Amino acid sequence: MTRSRSQDPNVCGVTAAIAVIDGKWKTILLWLLESGPHRPSELLRQLPGLTEKVLTQTLRVMEADGLVHREAHDSWPLRTEYSLTPFGRDLSQALEPLSDWGHRRLEKLAASQPAS
User: Is residue 25 a contact partner of residue 58, using CB atoms and an 8 Å limit?
Assistant: First the structure.
């Protein structure tokens, strides 16, 4: 989905919301940042397969969407932390029922699988 669709006032609200969380890493980053601020290196350690470049790009998009706050500390070595904004917390809370539904779906699928 294009970024312009996420900002089009004539689209369905669900479409606009999905445009903001669309992507492989955004929902898991929201979930990790719920527990508090994280440094990029901490996020990379917790997400095997995520590259530094993709993490940086994803966090920049999430920051532009108002979901995360980037804080650069003036210390040596330089230290950067990311945390959820109040708007990001609102989104995370809005996703909780969808997460519950997803877990129920997975349980249903597991129950319907023949025993091997």
Answer: yes
